[in-house]
Design goal:
The chain is of the alpha/beta class and 323 residues long. The chain has a single domain, classed as Aldolase class I (TIM Barrel, Alpha-Beta Barrel). The protein has an eight-stranded parallel beta sheet. α2 links the parallel β1 and β2.
Length: 323
């Protein structure tokens, strides 16, 4: 795909795919294959992007070989039907480049790269990190920056993002600021012809950011309920804000349950409100309930207990996700 076409495709719903693991902790590659095939059936002809081995895919708990195996398999299954932006972020630039080059070699359309973590770089270091990555791959290979302060202790500010957007194949940002004012400032700082600023925080936050031109959002819910996520995007595109509010409100029971689970398993070890990350466990349990291959999480994450799974099953049934 040419870069100009890939830039136009930076819209809609980006599915951050979960990675199923067996009870013994091993990678369930065939489960991942089955999930991917199911998603292809339910996203055909619509604006969906697939992101394997991102944060929701627990890449940090996987070996490089496991990440490569999942990326290669998803590319082979998708066969160009959907855009694939594989997660390739590592703490250091050289290792990130290796993973990006591998994703390019097996046919991914581009990559999603979380901010370098552990050591927080200067702005010049951050710029050089992404610049060197962009220069290490082909001119038509797209890069989405994952601007997530919660997992990196960094945030690329609007002036630096505007500078990065001028690098031709850096074409999108998964923007995870929870502050609407910050999103607004970012959206206005960057030329939309250079880069798409997508909502990294899902359906609820997207419903606010769409007022300022947000072209799409990242979703974990879409792993098992793409038919609930996509109408949110469609209502936004149509500027039907009454319908958009109604659709987002219909998802409230699920999101409220997700918050409840975090409280159930507290206290977490994060600084301030950030921490816990039980959302991946909820997504995986939901996938198991509706007949997909959610599987286990890997430590240091923990799974849901039986009572929580029973409550989630009831919620999903009321949302008509299974009979």
């Amino acid at each position: 795909m040419q870069l100009s076409d890939l830039k136009k495709a930076m819209r809609g719903v980006v599915i951050v795919q979960t990675t199923p693991f067996n009870k013994d902790g091993s990678l369930d590659l065939e489960g991942m294959r089955a999930n991917t095939r199911w998603l292809l059936e339910h996203t055909a002809g619509k604006d969906f992007i697939f992101t394997p081995v991102g944060s929701t895919g627990e890449f940090y708990a996987m070996s490089d070989d496991e990440c490569k195996a999942v990326t290669k398999m998803v590319v082979e299954e998708v066969k160009g039907k959907n855009v694939i932006l594989a997660g390739t972020g590592r703490a250091g630039t050289l290792e990130t480049i290796k993973m990006c080059q591998y994703a390019e070699s097996v046919g991914a359309d581009g990559v999603q790269i979380v901010l370098p973590y552990y050591h927080v770089p200067t702005e010049e270091g951050m710029y050089q990190h992404y610049k060197q990555i962009a220069e290490s791959v082909g001119k038509d290979f797209g890069i989405m920056i994952y601007n997530n302060p919660a997992v990196s202790s960094s945030w690329i500010k609007p002036p630096l993002m505007a500078k990065l957007s001028k690098i031709p194949n850096i074409i999108a940002v998964k923007e995870n600021t929870p502050y609407i004012k910050s999103y607004y400032t970012m959206q206005r700082a960057v030329d939309p012809n250079d880069m798409a600023i997508l909502c990294g925080l899902g359906e609820q936050v997207f419903s606010f950011e769409v007022l300022y031109g947000c072209a799409g959002f990242i979703s974990g819910l879409a792993n098992f309920a793409p038919d609930l996520s996509y109408p949110v995007y469609e209502a936004a595109v149509a500027r039907n804000f009454d319908k958009l509010a109604e659709l987002v409100d219909s998802l409230a029971p699920f999101f409220s349950f997700r918050s409840k689970v975090l409280e159930n398993h507290g206290p977490h070890t994060g600084i301030g409100e950030v921490g816990g990350n039980m959302y991946i466990s909820v997504f995986k349990a939901a996938m198991d309930i509706v007949g997909l291959r959610g599987g286990e999480v890997r430590l240091p994450l923990v799974g849901l207990n039986k009572e929580e799974k029973d409550e989630l099953s009831f919620i999903l049934k009321t949302m008509r996700l299974f009979k």
